Amino acid sequence: MFDEAKSDVCDMKERTYEKEREFLSPYAVRSENTRGRLREEKPCVMRTDFQRDRDRIIYSKAFLRLKNKTQVFFAPDGDHYMSRLTHTLDVSQIARSLARGLALNEDLAEAIALGHDLGHTPFGHIGERVLASLSPAGFRHSEQSLRVVDVLEKDGKGLNLTYEVRSGILNHVPEGKPETLEAEVVRYADLIAYINHDIEDAIRAGYLTADSLPKEPVSLFGSHTSERIHSAILDIYRSSYGKPYVKMSEPMEKALAQLRAFMFEHVYERANKVIQESAERMLGALYTYFVGRPEQLPALYRKTAETDVPRAVCDYLSSMTDKYAIGVFKELFVPREGGV
Q1: Residue 246 carries which DSSP code?
Q2: By the 8 A CB rule, do 146 and 165 touch?
Q3: Is the distance from CB of 124 to CB of 70 less than 8 angstroms?
């Protein structure tokens, strides 16, 4: 009986392989053809490597911290604003829908999507900009996300993810160069997710009204969030199904770029001003403090500090949630009552 159950478990992964061989596009990445991990390890008898990567990311500490990291609006007055975690889940859902429609590998797309922002700083893109200006080597959240899964998770052992997931995480940004169609799907999903739900948050926060959105993109995508996301997914499907690429039609691509430019001008720059000064002051002070006192970094980061102090400090600061960064700043720089 035990041997039969064990055999059934082993068949689970093979059945997944068979389904992928039969149903996936010739341009999809099949799980059995992964380029492998940084370090060899015994494979799971039930899950494909991409399914295993997804699980490792979901149970990582960096993923759990995303719930307390700013997406756009810092400490908003309301319970329904996007956080970095809800944005990540949004990207994952859109990526799965696109991958399913295009007969690509959903498990690979989902793993990339869930890991794409693990290295993001506190205070959203403001935090990223601050660290980029302070660190001699610069700072990019896509590169930091890869560093999180390769080096920092599991107390410095890393998650040892597959090549395809790691490459997709690194190249999810607009200027990236995705190596798989699944990674290209995530790049579009990220763009579609943050523009459309940031519009919703901006209207809720009073930075925009529905009528203030540019007319041409609205006429193409729709006036509501669900309509716009649906239109974007459908257009990519129509433009890309059965093709060796993933892209939007030219009119929709142009309209999406217009929406993105509009959001940067009317929301991101404007909303960021509210937290920019505070974030710059806090992260700047913390960076200077720990660069001068690397021995006070947590143990995980002190090893890196032996050879590269700025890198170690960026690792530590980018790992912080908004609340944690504020708490450390207060602990170090705000006088306590009674002078103690």
Answers
A1: -
A2: no
A3: yes
Can you list the alpha helix ranges (DSSP code H) found in 135-180? 141-147, 153-156, 163-170
pLDDT of residue 283: 94
Q: What pLDDT score does 62 carry?
A: 97
Six-digit token pair at 299?
């143990």
Comparing CA positions, the residue from 162, 15, 186, 34 lying closest to residue 102 is 186
pTM listed for this prediction = 0.93
Query: Which of 240, 250, 248, 235 has the alpha carbon at shortest distance from 103?
Result: 240
pLDDT at 304 over 70: yes
Residue found under tokens 């920092």: 152
Distance between CA atoms of 111 and 166, rounded to whole angstroms? 9
Residues contacting 164, CB < 8 A, separation 6+: 29, 34, 35, 50, 108, 112, 179, 180, 182, 183
CA atoms within 13 A on the CB side of 281: 11
Sign of CA dihedral 247, 250, 256, 261: positive
Task: Report how far apart the first and last C-alpha atoms of the chain are (Å, whole number).
Answer: 67
Q: What is the pLDDT of residues 167-193, one digit of tens each?
A: 999 999 989 999 999 999 999 999 999
According to DSSP, the residues that pair with 41 across neighbouring strands are: none
The CA distance from 87 to 193, in Å, is 7
Q: Apex CA 59: angle with CA 12 and CA 44, to 5°? A: 25
All structural domains of the chain: 2-339 (1.10.3210.10)
